[in-house]
């Protein structure tokens, strides 16, 4: 099980944009789930 890819520059840039971060996280997890269950 590989670690999720979370670029540090992206975190620092999007630090004030919590909804954006959560949305990208959600889409990442959704993609991972589809890979696992499809």
From TrEMBL:
Protein name: Uncharacterized protein
């Amino acid at each position: 099980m590989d670690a999720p890819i979370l670029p540090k520059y992206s975190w620092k840039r999007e630090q004030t944009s919590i909804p954006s971060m959560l949305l990208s996280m959600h889409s990442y997890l959704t993609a991972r789930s589809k890979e696992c269950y499809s």
